[in-house]
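User: Continuing from earlier, I have the next pair ready.

Assistant: Great, send them over.

User: Here they are, in order.

Assistant: Folding the first of the pair now:
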Amino acid sequence: MFILPQVALHRLIQEGIKAIKNKPELLDEIFQYYKLDWANSDYGDSYIQMIKTWFVDTKIPVVQAWSINPQQVPQVAVRLASEQEDQSKAAMGDHYYYGEESTVGTSPFSVTLEILVMASRNSDESLWLYYIILYILFKTKTRAHQMGLELQTVSASDLVRNNAVLADNIWTRSIRFSTIVQHTWNDMDYLDIDDVEVELDVESSSTGIKVEGV
């Protein structure tokens, strides 16, 4: 089976946001730092309640790649940063062997996905949403592993603005989600290109050459 990490991560974040909306008291766990003695006078319960109201009442779409519609903020976008076969984790000959005849092929890939947390420049929404997404990523590690995302690690960057791609009122905070996926397939059903017949029909004219394959 081929693992589709971008699809899996998109679903995990989507489900996580929905779960917290249905149970907003989880935000008390995420933002309990605001209730420590040194922060309580400036933040505290009233500030966390403001976050709850915003989060429950605000539509937060989760998309693959990104939307450049400036009205779609806040927004979470999941896109591929890099994906490459990991030679250090490859099996001998790229195959696992089971029994005397059946063969299972395997290809481990190192994958990095970028999660873009987008919000308005003039609000704390990007900070709140960033920590909510981090919470979801850590609380769903077991589920992610069950979906084929192994050895998950996370890194992040601070707020940036990309005027070449997004409107000037949108700032993004980037989370890089790295994982290992193991693609497997039934090697007995390999693609035998010797069984494929190709016929070429070449037509020349004064305007050019036309080639059709069947």
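And the other member of the pair:
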Amino acid sequence: MSVAFDADVIVLAREVPEVRLVAEVKRSIVNLADAEAALRRYMLDRKCSIGLLVTPDRTRIYRDTFADFTPDSVQLVGDYPTSDLLNVDHVPNDDRALQQAVRAWLDQLAAALPAALPKADAVRGPVVQYVVPEVADGRVSSGSLG
């Protein structure tokens, strides 16, 4: 059964309506395979290069290699502790507060604040390589484009 994907946070290019990053932020993800498939379809449909699946415990970062414009071109970069990604000791455990925390973190990255970079080396590298280029000078927004 296919799961409908409803983006919780998106980052748009500053001047054009281009989705650069999409995040699904949930207290829990019941079926990871279905959530990944829905994220991949969303990224492919909108030519979005970076996707995040965020729960209070873990964040998975995906990137579209644009190799062949199929779901296989969207690759898992890694799976990281959400607390390390957001630089917080306590990650909110309800959907709304978690979405706000992710949006605030992306807003800080978009403003090019080095303080928003994860302190943990294992997370900082992938964030600098994949996430920062997509959010730099971007517009962070809640909700889906439909």
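Worth noting for the second one:
Helices lie at 32-45, 82-86, 95-110, 121-135. Residues 95-110 form the longest helix (16 residues).
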